[in-house]
Amino acid sequence: MVDSLAGLVVDPSWDRDPGAHPEWAPWRKLAAEWTPETPLGRIEAKAGFVFGNVALVGTLAAGLGLATGVRIPDALAPLSATAAGLLVLALALALAAAMPSWRRSIPLQLDELKRLYERRITVRGWLVRLSLVAYAAAFLAAIAITVFAVNATAKPSLGLAAMGKGDAMVVTGILNAQGLDADARASTTLVAVLADGRTQTLATDVSKPGAAGALTVTLTADPAPAAPTYRLQTQIQDASGDLLTQSLDLPG
């Protein structure tokens, strides 16, 4: 006679009732502590995370920008505006998720109360999710901006001023450049553009930034001839031979 139960494997956990078995005790405790307020509290915590981190990122970005003088290239301006917009969107969504309810009373019927909390959890949960997605996208955009801004070719800042001194003119030009190669070479010239189109050189300077990578050049023509236009122009050649040319005109 063949035993029909031969080879049968009995699952020893079949009688481990979740309501009574000791192995389920931690889960029963968690179920007792998990109330409709629990997910709402977690949502508010995530909203606070967005608020705190956006404030921290903004403070660090402003502080590093002032300390290092890193300038965002014009080509990255759209990406920079997008990152700022994403941060504002993340803040707005987090604010909406943390906004207190306008209800003045709580439904007395359990089914209505259950629907109210389910609706709050669903709506506020999606608001926080979208807020975190916007924050993450802005963070990635900020990383890209930082990488490209640091590696971008530094553009000099030019300033030009002219003032009368008796019957003559005093013209002053200033060049400021940062983030240059130590072996870069900057040639700066202050010229007067005459009425017939010819140029008259008023002052010149050739400098290297050195290890600091920063350069400030001041050229002054005292006295300067009367001219319709004064021009400050610079040429910066880096170690690889790339040449950057920039000029600034000032009506006389």
Task: Provide an overview of this structure.
The protein is an alpha+beta fold. The chain has 2 domains: 22-151; 157-251, Immunoglobulin-like (Sandwich), CATH 2.60.40. It is built from 4 helices and 7 strands; from the N terminus they run ααααβββββββ. It has a 4-stranded antiparallel sheet, with no helix packed on it. Helix 2 runs antiparallel to helix 3 (77-98), helix 2 packs parallel to helix 4 and helix 3 (77-98) runs antiparallel to helix 4. The protein is elongated and about 100 Å long.
Please give the structural blueprint.
Blueprint: H1 25-33, H2 37-68, H3 77-98, H4 110-151, E1 157-165, E2 168-177, E3 185-193, E4 199-207, E5 215-224, E6 229-237, E7 243-251
Antiparallel strand pairs: 1-2, 2-5, 3-4, 3-6, 6-7
Helix pairs in contact: 2-3, 2-4, 3-4
How many helices does DSSP assign? 4
Q: What structural class results from the helix and strand content?
A: alpha+beta
Helicity, as a percent range: 40-55%
| Coarse shape | elongated
Give the low-confidence spans: none
Q: Let me know the average pLDDT.
A: 76
Number of domains: 2
Order of helices and strands: HHHHEEEEEEE
Distance between the termini: 119 Å
